[in-house]
Amino acid sequence: MSATALKLANSPLYGSGSQISSVRKAVDRLGTKNIVCVVVAAALKASITGLAAAWLVQFWRRTTQMAVASSMIARKQYGISPDAAYTNTLFHDAAIPLMMKRFPEYAKVLETCDRKKKMRISAGAELFQCTHPIVGSLLVRNWGLPKILGQTIRFHHKEDAYDLPDRSLPGGAHSFIAVTHVAEHLFAEIKGEPDLEVGEMLFQRALDYLGISPDDLDTIRTMVTQVAEDNA
């Protein structure tokens, strides 16, 4: 947790000043709410075991980077909590390793999707009784996190997510979905990978929902690039 706190405190989200190496200074810079995010992140990573260590390291590195990017995007919007955006993105794909443990063939399905450039969610839905958004929403509920995060994760791959009424998906949930969609799509773009998670349609819907202009998007892309290229 100390290492995670220091890394977050020195990230582009909070590290505009000099680099720090003291945990106490990291706590002072991050504040209580963000320290809670650090604790949750460390606990989540520690709770999922039994898979190849190298794969888990890479999975959590990318997920954490995207969580930081989502928080940065949220900070540039009005009325979206950066802390909640961070937690949502941290958990939004957390069920993928759980699915890999439950279904031994799940990893092969993901590999096939990558090779054929097919959207992962459609392949998973075709072959298994549940999908990672459904499992992820249950995971969030079991962790006692806010209900809105579970709803966000449950619907984040739905093509009609931005059209769902408040009784199905509260407005705040749409915002968390949107910042995650933008962060995830840009990560794929920056790393030169096909976007097999969000897709062009949902990415454009996210930009429209957040009111992100082309100039704003260029600024956000620069921020996300800085986060995505941090391999520490």
Q: Could you characterize what this model shows?
A:
With 232 residues, this protein is mostly helical. It has 2 domains: 47 residues, no CATH class; 179 residues, Hypothetical protein af1432. Helices cover 69% and strands 0% of the residues. The protein is built from 13 helices and no strands. Helix 4 runs antiparallel to helix 13. It is globular, with a radius of gyration of 17 Å.
Number of domains: 2
Assign the CATH topology of the largest domain: Hypothetical protein af1432
The assigned CATH architecture of the largest domain is Orthogonal Bundle
Q: Which regions are unreliable across 5 or more consecutive residues at pLDDT < 50?
A: none
Shape: globular
Question: Would you spell out the secondary-structure blueprint of this structure?
Answer:
Elements: H1 2-9, H2 23-30, H3 32-47, H4 53-75, H5 82-92, H6 95-102, H7 106-116, H8 120-127, H9 132-142, H10 147-155, H11 171-190, H12 199-210, H13 214-228
Helix pairs in contact: 1-2, 3-5, 4-5, 4-11, 4-13, 5-11, 6-9, 9-10, 10-11, 11-12, 11-13
Gist?
The chain has 232 residues and is mainly α. The chain is built from 13 helices and no strands. The longest helix is centred in the first third of the chain and has 23 residues, at 53-75.
Give short descriptive properties of this protein.
globular, Hypothetical protein af1432, mainly alpha, 232 residues
